[in-house]
Design goal:
The structure is a single chain. By secondary structure, this protein is an alpha/beta fold. It folds into three domains: 124 residues, Response regulator (Rossmann fold, 3-Layer(aba) Sandwich); 167 residues, 3-Layer(aba) Sandwich (Rossmann fold), CATH 3.40.50.300; 129 residues, Helicase, Ruva Protein, domain 3 (Orthogonal Bundle), CATH 1.10.8.60. The chain is built from 19 helices and 18 strands. Strands 2-1-3-6-7 form a five-stranded parallel beta sheet, with helices on both faces. Helix 6 crosses helix 7 and helix 13 crosses helix 15. The protein starts with a strand and ends in a 5-residue tail after the last helix.
């Protein structure tokens, strides 16, 4: 379904231009003044509002404030003349997504800004839908992602969750394997029973063994009383063993025996206890490679990998980055008691083009840090990457090039941002000198620099 865009402008040529430009990609509604805009806004759920600053009997900034009071996450873009740029910048600081200067000289840049605005609206709507679902199913973990890669994973999880069989979750660190395990539990027939998780890579062998199997009083020094292990405590529930590849050969053998008959014997005891649990395992290393290298038992591998689900790295699901970033921004703003956002178009482009070697976890920490250090208001690239540590260069060919890295608009944005920063450096920060060097009128150049965050 095409997004709905409201264009509010008393200039017939501007309305006609935007209607023609957006005709094939959106459902466009046109309004000539505040009264028509209010009527349209009251009857339609618009994905984006393009608002002229000067309207007959109305002020575009005030009207957008009025609309945002009714819908706080409304994505709005102000259209303004060069003389009113200062007011437009102030409006952006209040939470407006962006502003455009008229007359429109670069239609490709115009389309790029509108595209980013629609991406942010989709992100807000996905988060809203997730929260509505969690209100009905509060125990269901919130996994965000509508990219093809994540849709495949979520489909697999829904298929296997109700089956009482072991599941192996594979994928790089930070891809969300723990969330997937919790979702499997929430959707399983054992959902009302315990969900226990153990990180096998963070514990020495004796401690991990006692944690899993339990022990009797006096079984070893310090065992002052009997204690049931996680195999027993997870009875009728789900047990999640993270970093299973780090388990020692001895414990691998012991785990295999438990999985064969679900009988458990505590350390220091001869009594056999029944443990009816469903096992979910995870690893950030290709487990079959560990088997071939002799570091992991082949028979155990086939026992735990009855169903294998691979969590995609963030570079293979770049379509989810905006939604994830918006979610983390909203979450940490509320947690820290701040009003941060929205993310600017340049910030969104930087996030989408970053390599994210640490995947979703790295993105989460990036947003958390930015919100913690930000006083409030819109967040630009420099708020997210204050030391410029992000990389906007596309991956090299032998590592696989993502679809987003090949998009012309993204490449064009990266080039223009880099050009403007180099130009400003060459002019020692003087915008007038930069305009002289580039041959671009000073007002036009300043607006471009402001939009892409090259100047503050």
């Amino acid at each position: 379904m095409l997004p709905k865009i409201l264009v509010v402008d008393d200039d017939r040529h501007t309305r006609k231009l935007l209607d023609r430009l957006l005709d094939k990609t959106a459902q466009v509604s046109l309004a000539v003044d505040g009264a028509q805009a209010r009527q349209a806004f009251a009857t339609e759920d618009f994905n984006l509002v393009l608002m002229d600053q000067r309207l007959p009997g109305d002020n575009g900034i005030a009207l957008l404030r009025e609309f945002r009071a009714q819908r706080p996450h409304l994505v709005g873009i102000l259209m303004t003349g060069f003389a009113d740029v200062r007011d437009a910048v102030a409006a952006v600081r209040e939470g407006l997504f962006d502003y455009l200067t008229k007359p429109f000289e670069d239609l490709e840049a115009l389309e790029a800004v509108i595209g980013k605005a629609l991406e942010l609206d989709r992100a807000y709507r996905e988060i809203h839908g997730l929260r509505a679902r969690l209100a009905v199913e509060p125990d269901l973990p919130g996994i965000i992602g509508q990219s093809p890669a994540m849709e495949r994973v979520l489909s697999q999880i829904r298929q296997v969750a109700g089956l009482d069989t072991t599941v192996l979750l594979q994928g790089e660190s930070g891809t969300g394997k723990e969330f997937a395990a919790k979702m499997i539990h929430a959707l399983s027939t054992r959902a009302g029973k315990p969900f226990l998780e153990v990180n096998c890579g963070g514990l020495p062998e004796p401690l991990l063994e006692s944690l899993l199997f339990g022990y009797e009083k006096g079984a070893f020094t310090g065992a002052g009383q009997a204690n049931a292990g996680y195999f027993e405590k997870a009875h009728e529930g789900n047990l999640f063993l993270d970093e299973i590849a780090d388990m020692s050969p001895k414990l691998q053998s012991n785990l295999l025996r438990v999985l064969q008959d679900h009988n458990v014997t505590r350390i220091g005891s001869t009594q056999v206890r029944k443990a009816d649990f469903r096992l979910v395992c995870a690893t950030n290393r290709p487990l079959l490679d560990e088997v071939k290298a002799g570091r992991f038992r082949e028979d155990l591998y086939y026992r735990i990998a009855v169903v294998s689900v691979t969590m995609p790295p963030l570079r293979e699901r770049t379509g989810d980055i905006v939604a994830l970033a918006a979610h983390f921004l909203d979450y940490y703003s509320k947690k820290f008691g701040k009003t941060c956002g929205p993310l600017t178009p340049t910030a969104l482009s930087a996030l989408e083009n970053c390599r994210w070697e640490g995947n979703v976890r790295q993105l989460q920490h990036c947003i958390e840090r930015a919100v913690a250090l930000h006083i409030g208001g819109p967040m630009d690239t420099l708020h997210l990457f204050p030391t410029g540590e992000h990389s906007t260069s596309p991956p090299v060919a032998d590592e696989g090039v993502t679809a987003s890295a090949l998009r012309y608009q993204d490449a064009r944005t990266d080039f223009e941002l880099d050009y403007l920063r180099r130009l400003l450096d060459a002019a020692d920060g003087n915008v007038s000198e930069a305009a002289r060097l580039s041959g671009i009128p000073r007002q036009n150049l300043y607006v471009r620099m402001k939009r892409w965050g090259a100047v503050t």
